[in-house]
Write a structure and sequence with these properties.
The chain is mainly beta and about 90 residues long. About 10% of the residues lie in helices and about 40% in strands. The longest helix is centred in the middle third of the chain and has 9 residues. The structure holds zinc ion.
């Protein structure tokens, strides 16, 4: 089992975390004016890159959301930070 670094709690088992989305996949502005295609792309389309990627994760024990940079090939955790860029949320 892999350990993920929660910025608030420290290293914890990966089973305590939930993937909350790709960093930079911003929620569409508005509500009624947003087409179903745009909503579907926001909700269900993910980048799935090979190599280094920045993602939003939620630690289900402390319920905090944070940014984690990891390599999808080696599974190496490069960094994790409590800061989310402007407009990001989960
Ligand atoms: Zn935590």
């Amino acid at each position: 089992m892999q350990l993920f670094p929660c910025p608030f709690c420290g290293p914890r088992p990966e089973t305590e975390f939930h993937f909350a989305g790709d960093l930079g996949n911003l929620r569409p502005e508005g509500f009624l004016g947003v087409s179903t295609d745009i909503w579907a792309a926001y909700l269900f389309s993910h980048n799935n890159p090979k190599g280094e990627t920045k993602e939003i994760w939620k630690h289900l024990t402390c319920m905090e959301v944070f940014t984690m940079t990891r390599d999808t090939v080696t599974h190496q955790i490069i960094s994790s930070t409590a800061l989310l860029p402007e407009g990001e949320g989960a």
